[in-house]
Amino acid sequence: MMKTKMLMMLVISALFVTDAAMAGFTFTQADLLNLTDLTTPSSPTENATDPLGIVTADHSFDGTYYTAYDWVESFQGNVGYVGTPGGGASLYIGTEDPGILAAAETDGTFDLRIYNDDDDNWNVWLRAEGTNNGTTTSVSLLYGDSTDLTLDLSSLGTLTSIGFVVESAKPSTDTYHISVVPEPATLLLLGLGLVIPTKRKR
Q: Which among 1, 26, 37, 171 is most buried, taking Cβ atoms within 10 Å?
């Protein structure tokens, strides 16, 4: 019993060391479930009339993850998003929560892994808005692919929003299926049943 407890403590310590080494901010699963459509018509590539449709962490939804001619064969991340940008248009999915923005500013960089669960290609990138806006370079995701993205927040000033963008790679309106993973250390701790709930200042 003592050996088991010691092993668990070593695992917990290693996880927190690993998480500390990953200096960048990333969303928790709770954050991901509360992301909303922040798209505005101010950008010519954004289409505010095509809102974010579904946000879910329910993998049983995979079987009904179907709209028009689009479908997924796997739900790779932990939280899935469905939306319908027009041809060449994009959707900004993110948050304006003050507590999340403060945490991101403190960490200085923003990290996120995004999966394409769709049967078509989609362009994705990270985005943050503040005194100075910043985005990562657009990455084209083939079906089933994933990408790890990092956005430097150090020169963006006071943040007003943070999240990611999905852009149609087709000339016509299409429905995307994207999923994202929360912070790695939290996932591992959840798997071990060792997460201690904490409150973030909002």
A: 26
> Does 200 fall in a domain?
no
Burial group, residue 168, by CB count within 10 angstroms (0-12, 13-18, 19+): buried
Q: Which residues of the chain have pLDDT under 70?
A: 1-23, 41-51, 61-73, 183-202
* The total number of structural domains that make up the chain: 1
Per residue in 12-54, pLDDT (tens digit) is: 344 343 344 445 899 999 999 999 988 876 554 555 455 677 8
Rounded to whole angstroms, how far apart are CA atoms 173 and 189? 40
In angstroms, the CA 78 to CA 115 distance is 10
H and E: helices and strands count for the chain: 4, 13
Structural domain including 83 reads 2-192
Contact (Cβ atoms closer than 8 angstroms) between residue 104 and residue 128: yes
Predicted TM-score of the model (pTM): 0.77
Say what the pLDDT of residue 65 is.
54
Q: How far apart are CA 49 and CA 41, in angstroms?
A: 9
In this structure, is residue 37 part of a structural domain? yes
Residue with tokens 């088991």: 4
